[in-house]
Amino acid sequence: MNIDVLNLNNNELLALGAVFKYLEITQKQKITHFSLPKHFKSSNNMILDSTTILNLGLLPNRENKGKTLFDVLKFTKTPMGSRTLKQWISKPLIDKKSIEKRLEIVEIFRNDPLIMEELKEYLSSIRDIERIISRISLLRATPRDLVALRFSLEVLPYINELLSALGLDTLEEFHDLIGLLHSAITEEPSTQVGTGRVIKKGFNNELDQYKEIFENSSVFLKEIELKEKEKTGISNLKVSRNKIYGFYIEVTKANIDKVPPHYIRKQTLVNSERFITEELRNLEEKYSIAEKKIDELEKRLFNNLILELQKYVKDLKILSSNISKIDILRGFAEASIKNNYSKPDFDDDNFVIINGRHPVVEQFTDSFTPNSIKLDRSKRFVILTGPNMSGKSTYLRQIGIISIMAQIGSYVPAEYAKLPILKIFLPELVLKMMLLVENLLFLWRWRKFLPY
């Protein structure tokens, strides 16, 4: 690949090279499945610093788990959807058309609760496609990863049927890949490749032949046992196998005198003797060869299958991303119904929230008092005062969170909201300014008592 197309400066290229070198060293192979790096441009997303994310309670950490905006909006059913939701919350959009496109899809889901609920059930069946793709790319996918991938892909036609009924874009269906996985991997494969319980019967003729020898050994042993009982007249004679001694004929010591001359003694026990015959020796050799060939063939076939799957990685990444979007927006619709949210409007000249609520705080109280704010070109700021613990910080954070919710494409906890598109939100700075103003007002009220 020509790195000129990346449009990166020397320092960025050095950093990128160091990252990939580290990954190659730790993963012990070339890294080929990553998307091309892109500049993160503040012109595409609202700027939220780590302090803002922490103090607004947007994303969970050890201290605030279960009490964040992420927890309130997490109605996702797929692992990819949950991870992507965190990215959306930390990087809200500032493009009005993109925001309104998300809100439009949320509204479509809201208007058909039955389809929304049915879609939730199908999404619950989707496994972690994103992680499976990574393991395929690194040649570390397990047989059960491939079964999980196939199972997830088989759900897509049902999801597409619902999306089509709503007038939404459908997902790509991977019929060829489903067929390949279905023909190659058993329904409940072993976790270990090489046991003969991973590659499906009919996928490879040579493997099937060796598996037949291996799997039918018990039948062959039973036939030999019946034949030897008839020949020798020893009714309690047993033909069996164990991992240490292989195949053997076991005869009790009471019947030793009936043992034919061609039996070769193999092991002496307290109450019996074990023997081997030329026929059993030949069978044991075939069995050992079959066991070894099954191990070699199945591993080779599985590795070739993983290499074949790598050509689907790019399209599967797109699929994973699209499923995540559907999962999140469907979740936004469910959250809006359960929490009584409304669809926000956008207007650069107005900042209006009527009866707004803090989406997290209201989850833990039955008596949250709604608050409103109205700003326009003639009224560009307010001075917020009140005693300690009166809710000033909650009010300010509530306004910020409602703005963020709107700009990720979610409905908002308010009776009505008309908001500008914010490009930067740093409430900690605003809080400090608010405290400064409060202190100045306090000093002004009590100025006559102050020494000059």
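Above is the first protein from milestone M3; the second protein from the same milestone is given next.
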Amino acid sequence: MKSYKPVTPGRRGMTVVSYRDSLTSHKSTPLKSLTKGKRSTGGRNHAGRTTNFYQGGGHKRTYRQIDFVYNKKDIQARVESVEYDPFRTGFIALAVYADGERRYVVAPKSLVAGSTFIVSETARALVGNRLPLGKIPVGTFIYNVEIKPGAGARIARSAGNYAEVVAHDGGYTQVRLPSTEVRKILSTSWASIGAVSNEEHHLVNIGKAGRSRWMGLRPKNRGTARNAVDHPHGGGEGRSGRGHRRARTMQGRPVGKGQKSRRPKKYSNVFIVTRRKPGIRMQNRKV
């Protein structure tokens, strides 16, 4: 982490990730053939109504097309550079395969320029390699985990995250997710070995409101400070309690304080072996 001298109020306590130590210095711009433009929605849907609040503004960004499917199998790839991606918290790696094709992939920890990896059913369980869950030893850390075979990576893709192989049983692999939930996934689904890079991301102190606005984050005000028509916690004379036993979202759904918000009849309930443990126990599970 890089910290600053408190020459201004915004600099006091402000920290940033030291990219110089993690990224390939000579690579300053992304590969143009693997990028495209992406419009900012400002949290609004196709009808122009705000559906995701507290979003808007921010710096213009170029979208990097990331390979989450990994459909080039049994061809070794070499990492040309490790780069920053403004659309995700982890770093990305530009990989060139033996046949000359280049793709962006999510970079794991300890992956540097010159490292190699392969996507194969016969691959060794080394950092960066990708293979089916059924062939990964118990206790191995994995990332970019598929939920359905061939559907692409869905689990453990953000900075510092990883899942852990717990057991193999009856065609399924039990995986401990970053949320501490243990879930059964088909053993024919694929996963990459290691943990996602930029594990210091959760230590960043933004420092000032302006930096949040550069990131496209708008101010968030408390529900108790609003009118009753705008939030279930709003209204009342002076500083009032929320008036409900459980905290609620703007839409009236339960939220926070370890409350269960999952639908009781959700289709994937049959795949959950152990429910997640919210609170301090989950927060302490860091890479």
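Note on the second protein: The longest helix spans residues 209-214.
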